[in-house]
Fold this sequence. Notes:
- By secondary structure, this protein is α+β, with helices and mostly antiparallel strands.
- The protein has helices at residues 10-13, 27-33, 39-47, 72-76, 103-111, 124-135, 166-174, 182-189, 194-201, 229-236, 251-261, 328-332, 352-358, 365-386, 399-406, and strands at 50-56, 60-70, 82-92, 99-101, 118-119, 139-145, 266-271, 274-278, 290-296, 305-310, 315-318, 344-351, 390-394, 413-422.
- It is 30% helix and 21% strand.
- β7 and β8 (274-278) form a beta hairpin.
- The model is unreliable at 8-40 and 145-160 (pLDDT under 50).
Amino acid sequence: xxxxxxxxxxxxxxxxxxxxxxxxxxxxxxxxxxxxxxxxxxxxxxxxxxxxxxxxxxxxxxxxxxxxxxxxxxxxxxxxxxxxxxxxxxxxxxxxxxxxxxxxxxxxxxxxxxxxxxxxxxxxxxxxxxxxxxxxxxxxxxxxxxxxxxxxxxxxxxxxxxxxxxxxxxxxxxxxxxxxxxxxxxxxxxxxxxxxxxxxxxxxxxxxxxxxxxxxxxxxxxxxxxxxxxxxxxxxxxxxxxxxxxxxxxxxxxxxxxxxxxxxxxxxxxxxxxxxxxxxxxxxxxxxxxxxxxxxxxxxxxxxxxxxxxxxxxxxxxxxxxxxxxxxxxxxxxxxxxxxxxxxxxxxxxxxxxxxxxxxxxxxxxxxxxxxxxxxxxxxxxxxxxxxxxxxxxxxxxxxxxxxxxxxxxxxxxxxxxxxxxxxxxxxxxxxxxxxxxxxxxxxxx
Length: 446
């Protein structure tokens, strides 16, 4: 009987890797506090009568990843030439890249506590493993001076760990893009057009799911009712991929759209410092963690650049001089050139700490923050459509590039999506999905 392991079995490899976290997590602060002790540094520490204790980083998973390669010699000898080996990868919430480890290093991580400090083993082999894991930033070091009985240990490189549910933290950290050109990737994969998708991927699941019970049994046909103004507006909403690069939005249009979506129309403070804002869009727990950071490209009366919208003052504040350049939109949008000449890009930045303040170590909070971005996106769509503008929203963005530009700590705040708007071009150079022909008349209708 042949057997193989399940592909997604991270947790079976790391049975105790997910402790409850405590406040204060930040990737940059965690990363900056990790120690890479050189051999000379360790010798000096030992010479001063110091001993080093370690513990494991709190949020990490170990993945056995099967890596394939081609064996040319086997291929020439008549074999299939395919060779595979298992590579052990460790993904951590404070590191941007996974770390490759040996089975011995993985075993040491599995038996090491994330909560309790433990002494570095005395035997040379185990000590070498521990020091190598320190170099990989998978262990945290505490140096304790033993010169006097009343001395207090000096903690170094003990990272604060936040209120993230560990799996969500790891997913968020490692699903971010940097320097990606998604259009070039689609072109290389020949997945650009609908025909490409069908040819390469086959037929998708049906657009409408029919449940097992026959449709005619017990079916209640609902009466048609006249479309409301809101519904009519929704039918006019068509994602825009053809913006007019010369025409600017008015400041009044931008003000109206932000007022309908992000402006705080009231507030409640049931306890000192505990402020709930009233906006036109819903938010999990009434916390409204989304900030609107705007990349202005063409708005009458505003210089091109980055701005932050203040929801209580209904005002825009520049976000640092000299940060704007003409290629910024394309970098942020991962090469989606059909979007990068929109008049305004609204970067939906989620302040994770605000939601995590309430929903600590909660398995659902990351989903809730995604829903907040969805609520805001639809509201922005409708407001822009009402102003006669074209609009889009995309999550195919280079989050790391945006974080660096806005000086964001990715585990405290980060971009979830970009919404764009502006005047639609007179001609359609890039395909748009408009089955109702509300924006682009069908052939013969003009």
